[in-house]
Design brief:
The chain contains three helices and seven strands. By secondary structure, the chain is of the alpha/beta class. It has one domain: Rossmann fold (3-Layer(aba) Sandwich). The longest helix is centred in the last third of the chain and has 16 residues. One of its GO terms (molecular function) is DNA binding.
């Protein structure tokens, strides 16, 4: 299995809103997405925002424990995310402050980072953990600034 690609998107005005936009993009591309966050309150806030952030498009999503999870494009989980069966390669979107457990079972990990100092600090720590594990994270600037 090839090494997991890890993408950090820095400069999001609102981390959860940017995550909703990423989930919509994956769904519209016909691809599955697993969204991980051990913080149940943050995951619930993302769930609520996913229902309401866009008036014209709907992103089908359920919790990983839902009976429809296997047939739903976007899965939300506070437990260790499970890579899918062969042939079905969902991306993993991390909304947690720490690296998601088992992330290297996914083809791709998305990290969205706001300009909030605590969020940026947690992201820097995740970046170092990924590097220490042998990954080369990729950085993208959502605000369009040059580094």
């Amino acid at each position: 299995m090839p090494m997991t690609r890890i993408d950090f998107a820095f400069g999001a005005a609102d981390r959860l809103r940017a995550a909703c936009q990423a989930a919509r993009k994956r769904y519209q591309a016909g691809q599955r997405l697993v969204v991980y966050c051990a913080d149940g309150a943050r995951l619930a806030a993302f769930d609520r925002m996913l229902w309401a952030f866009d008036d014209v498009s709907f992103v089908p999503h359920v919790l990983a424990t839902d009976p429809l999870a296997a047939d739903t494009p976007v899965i939300l989980t506070a437990a260790a995310p499970q890579p899918a069966a062969a042939g079905d390669e969902p991306w993993l979107l991390n909304l947690d402050d720490d690296c998601p457990p088992g992330y290297d079972g996914f083809a791709r990990v998305l990290e969205i980072v706001s300009d909030d100092p605590a969020d940026r600090q947690a992201a820097r720590q995740r970046w170092r953990v990924y590097q220490a594990a042998g990954h080369t994270p990729h950085s993208h600037d959502l605000a369009g600034r040059t580094a």
